[in-house]
Each structure stands twice: as structure tokens, then as C-alpha cells.
Amino acid sequence: MKVSTFFRKRPLLFEIVNPLNKFIKMEAFSGILLMIVTAIALIMANSFMSDAYFGFFKQKLTFAFEGFELSKPLLLWINDGLMAIFFLLVGLEIKRETQTGELSSIKTAAFPAFAAIGGMLIPALFYEIFNYHGDGWPGWGIPMATDIAFALGVMTLLGSRVPVALKLFLTALAIVDDIGAVVVIALFYSSSINYEALILAGLLFATLMTMNAFKVFRVSIYLFIGVFLWIALLKSGVHATVAGILLAIAIPGKARKSVEECVSSNESVLGRLKANDSREDTLDAKKDKKLIAAIYTIGDNCTHAVSPLLRLEHSLHSWVAYLVVPIFAFANAGVIFKASLFTDILNPIATGVFAGLVFGKPIGIALFSLLATKLKLASLPSGVKWKHIIGAGFLGGIGFTMSIFIDNLAFASDPYYIEIAKIGILFSSLIAGIVGYIILFMAGNPEKK
């Protein structure tokens, strides 16, 4: 078979996909999956399966060899280990957005950045109003978080009634929100510091950055060193999930080859194939070998034209969206609803979480968005009205994944407070999601009218 015939029968379809739109679709369906997993966890925790559910995550998993042992309950392996992969993806998304995405210029970043800052500061303030000088004061970081998967999942249910620009705004806001959450976790929710382990972590991070500077593009080497960085941070007292962010910073954001070089090289390979194909005296076996070699060369060229950051981000998205985060939700969302449920809801911790997520989030997001426009630092995205911003602000009050994560850190020494905060998170996220859905449903999409 001639090479020309081969390529005519198997056309190469080049599709240019906006990475952010792809991210939105994946995160949206991940949010729907999270709703299902959360419901299952709550049913199991409040049924005859309760002991089996909680007992399963208390089992210890140990990795040990001579001179080294790492032994933790399964729940902590999920929260410290699997969530490091989640934070690696978060770090990659942040890096990409600051390089080429919605946060790559002051003009595009100002509006969601201001909204995110308001959506962090005001909820923390609302929480502390109820817990100032009380036992619950360490939980101020809980209502600062936004669960983008859940929020976009609710937006998916609204379909075309939500402007695309609003989805992009909420995504960019959540990414800035994630930056704030990482800073809060690193600075305020780390335990006593082991400086020897911290120095080792610093050396490993310096090694990763040196590799970046010397243009090492092999992702597997970064991941290998990243495992040891995670162990060093785990032993240092700085929360181990920060390793994911540090690793993401080190992953090269530039490709080995430019698109022009890739296209030129592929055209050259195809040209040589066509020239050889026209020679009737060439043996079929030799043609097959050249064809296979050409296909691999074209594949390598295309791979090298995509940065390691984008390749790794693309590889991790499905695993994180459909495995890592659902496992975390399943392991952490199980809360026993006792007879004292009403009393628990009125606890200052649960009340503070509710005030922060349901009232603080929309007020902070809308107020600081308005401030950005009044200062003429930004303007409303095209097709987006203020009622859309308010609706998105309520969806920002769906804290869930990150809120539960910070809850586990804030009250690590008191399981009772963890459960109280979880009740507040679940109840608040449900109310915020319902109110946000209603507001956006009533607002509609002006572009469709």
C-alpha cells in the first residue's frame, strides 16, 4: 500500500481545543460524581454499615525497610498522599493560567483575582465573628475555600442558561482561591518543624529547579524526585501536600520544540516518505520499516511540541477528577447524624462555617468585584450581569473538598470539632448550591435571548 493511500484512508484530525473549556467539562462531571459519592458516604455512615465504613479507613498501611518506616491509617494516606496528587494538578493549573491563561495578564486576571480575595477575606471574617477567642478559632480557613468541581457541576445542570464567560470567571476565581488556600495551609496549618527534613526538602526542590534551568524535559525524573520531596515534607512538619505545588513549580512550562519546528520536521519526514514511495523497486519490507519509523518520528515531534506541564496536566486530569477527589470525598464525607444534630448545627464552629460560606462568600465576591470595577481595574466579562456574579458567589460557597481538607488540618487534635465543622460544611455547601442555582436559573443567559 502506498504511503499516500495510507494517509488518505487514515486522515489526521488536528483539533485545537481550549484547555480551559476542556477543564470545565471535566470538573463539571466530576462535581456530579462527587455528589453521588458524598451521598453514598453519608448513607453508609448512618446505617448498619457504619462500623465497617469507619473501621476500613482506620486500618494502618505501612511501608518499611531497614532504617525507615512510614506507617499511617488509610485515611491519612488518602489525605496526605492522594491529595498531594490533587495539589500537583492544582499547581500545574495555576502555573498554566499565569503563563498563558486567564491569569496571564493584569487585565484578564484583575476581575477574578479581586473577587477571589474578597471571597477569602470576608468568609474568614464572618467565621471569626462567631469563634473569636473560642476553641474554634483555628478553623477560620475552612470557609475560605471553593470546590470548583461541585460549583461547575451545578452550572452544568443549568446548561446554556449560564454564559460561558461566567464559567471562565468562576474557574479563574477558584484558581486564585487555590493559591490562597495553599499559602494558608503552608503558613498556618503546619505542625512543629523538623529542620533537618525541611533542609532536605529545600535541597530536593533546588535540584528540581536546577533541572528546569538546564532544560531537563523528562517528566518521569521530576516525579521520581517529587516522591522524595513529599516524604521529606511529610517528616518536616510542613504539610506534605505542599510538595505537589512545589513539584508543579519545577515542571517546565515550555516545550522542547516550537510548533513551527514540529511542523517543519514532520513535513520533511512526509516528503521523504512520498519520495521513497514513488520508487517501484523498493521492497515492501523496507517501506514498512520506513513508514513505522516515520510515524514514530512524527509522534515524537508532536510530543516535543507540547510542554511537560501540559502533558502532565492532561494525564492527571482524569485520574484526579474521577478517582483521587472522589476517594477523598468518600473517605471524609461520612458524618454520623446524631440526635444532637440540631445542637451541633448551632455550635459556633458550624455556625461560623455556615456564615462564612453562605453569606461571606457571595458578599465578598460581589463586593470586591464591584470594587474592581469602581477602581477601573477591571470590567464585567462580556454577557455577564451582576446577578450572575451574585449567583456565582453563592456557588463559590460550595466549599466541600478543600474546606474538609482544611478542617482536618485545623482541628487535627480534636475529632469532635472536625465532625462539627463537617456538618457545617455539608449543610452550608448544600444551601449555597441551591441558592446559587436558583439565582442563576432566574438570571438566565442574555446572549440566548
Protein architecture, described:
The protein has 2 domains: 19-71 and 104-190 and 318-448, Na+/H+ antiporter like domain (Na+/H+ antiporter like fold), CATH 1.20.1530.10; 258-304. 72% of the residues lie in helices and 3% in strands. The protein has helices at residues 3-9, 19-45, 50-58, 74-99, 106-131, 148-158, 164-188, 195-213, 219-236, 242-250, 259-277, 284-304, 308-332, 341-345, 348-374, 386-395, 400-410, 415-443, and strands spanning 60-65, 68-73. A hairpin with a 2-residue loop joins strand 1 and strand 2. The longest helix is centred in the C-terminal third of the chain and has 29 residues, at 415-443. The protein is globular, with a radius of gyration of 25 Å.
Characterize the overall form. globular
Strand content: under 5%
Mean pLDDT metric = 82
Give the biggest beta sheet: 2 strands, antiparallel
CATH superfamily of the largest domain: Na+/H+ antiporter like domain
| Helical run tally | 18
Unreliable spans are 1-17
Strand sequence of the main sheet, in spatial order?
1-2
Q: How many beta-strand segments? A: 2
Spatial gap, N to C terminus? 54 Å
Question: How many domain regions?
Answer: 2
User: In sequence order, what are the helices and strands, one letter per element?
Assistant: HHHEEHHHHHHHHHHHHHHH
> What structural class do the secondary elements suggest?
mainly alpha
Give the fraction of residues assigned to helices: over 70%
CATH class of the largest domain: Mainly Alpha
Name given to the CATH architecture of the largest domain? Up-down Bundle
Radius of gyration: 25 Å
